[in-house]
C-alpha cells in the first residue's frame, strides 16, 4: 500500500508539471515551487520574461558573489540570492556571421581559466523575433560548490546582450528549462 501512495504522488506531480510548461502562461513548477514569470525591461529597451519574485541583487551581495570590478551590469536574483540572471550590454558591432567565433573565444577563455570545465551544450538558433541567439552551458565551481551556468549572446540593434543564468548544481534539473525559456523571450 505504501508504494501505491508514492506512485500516485509521482503521477500527480508529473501531471502538474505537464500542465504548467510555459513561462508566458501561468508559470512553472521549479523544484516543487510554483514560480510566476512576468515581462521586464532591462537597459530601458530590452524586453525579457523573468521570475516575478526576482529582485536586483543588493550591491553588498554583488561584491561577494562577483568580487571583480568587472561584475555584470544588471543582476536579478531570487530572494535567497542562490539563483540569478546577470546581463551585460556590449556596444561593439558584431555581425551574425561573427557571433559563433565570439562564442568560441568566450568558451576558450572559460576553459583556460578552469581546464576541468566542459561545455555541455552549444546551440545557435533564431528567436521568435528573428534575432540570432547562441546559448551554451557548463558546470563551474563557486565558494559553496558546483554551479550550473547557462550563457547566451544575442545580437540586437543596440549591441550584443550577454546573459548568464546561474544556480547551484543541485537545482539545475528544475531551472535549466526555465532559463532556456527566459533567454528565448529576449526582444527589443
- Runs with pLDDT <50, length 5+? none
Percent of residues in β-strands = 35-45%
Gap between N and C termini: 55 Å
**Biggest sheet: strands side by side, in what order?**
5-6-7-11-10-9-8
Sketch the major β-sheet.
7 strands, antiparallel
Count every beta strand, where a strand is a DSSP E run of 2 or more residues: 11
Structure description:
By secondary structure, this protein is an alpha+beta fold. It has four helices and eleven strands. It has helices spanning 2-19, 59-65, 99-113, 172-184, and strands spanning 28-30, 33-35, 37-42, 46-51, 55-56, 74-77, 84-90, 119-126, 132-142, 145-156, 159-168. The chain is globular and about 60 Å long.
Short summary:
The protein has 188 residues and is an alpha+beta fold. It has helices at 2-19, 59-65, 99-113, 172-184, and strands at 28-30, 33-35, 37-42, 46-51, 55-56, 74-77, 84-90, 119-126, 132-142, 145-156, 159-168.
Topology (SSEs and partners):
Layout: H1 2-19, E1 28-30, E2 33-35, E3 37-42, E4 46-51, E5 55-56, H2 59-65, E6 74-77, E7 84-90, H3 99-113, E8 119-126, E9 132-142, E10 145-156, E11 159-168, H4 172-184
Antiparallel strand pairs: 1-2, 3-4, 5-6, 6-7, 7-11, 8-9, 9-10, 10-11
Amino acid at each position: 500500500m505504501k508504494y501505491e501512495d508514492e506512485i500516485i504522488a509521482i503521477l500527480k506531480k508529473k501531471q502538474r508539471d505537464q500542465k504548467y510548461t510555459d513561462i508566458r502562461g501561468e508559470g512553472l513548477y521549479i523544484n516543487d515551487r510554483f514560480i510566476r514569470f512576468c515581462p521586464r525591461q532591462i537597459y530601458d529597451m530590452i524586453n525579457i520574461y523573468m521570475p516575478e519574485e526576482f529582485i536586483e541583487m543588493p550591491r553588498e551581495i554583488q561584491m561577494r558573489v562577483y568580487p571583480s570590478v568587472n561584475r555584470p551590469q544588471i543582476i536579478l536574483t531570487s530572494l535567497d540570492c542562490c539563483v540569478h540572471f546577470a546581463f551585460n550590454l556590449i556596444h561593439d558591432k558584431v555581425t551574425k556571421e561573427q557571433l559563433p567565433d565570439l562564442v568560441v573565444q568566450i568558451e576558450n577563455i572559460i576553459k583556460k581559466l578552469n581546464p576541468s570545465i566542459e561545455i555541455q551544450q552549444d546551440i545557435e538558433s533564431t528567436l521568435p523575433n528573428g534575432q540570432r541567439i547562441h546559448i551554451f552551458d557548463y558546470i563551474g565551481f563557486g565558494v559553496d560548490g558546483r554551479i550550473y551556468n547557462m550563457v547566451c549572446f544575442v545580437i540586437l540593434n543596440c549591441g550584443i546582450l550577454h546573459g548568464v543564468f546561474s544556480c547551484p548544481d543541485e537545482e539545475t534539473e528544475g531551472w535549466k528549462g526555465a532559463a532556456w525559456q527566459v533567454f528565448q523571450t529576449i526582444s527589443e
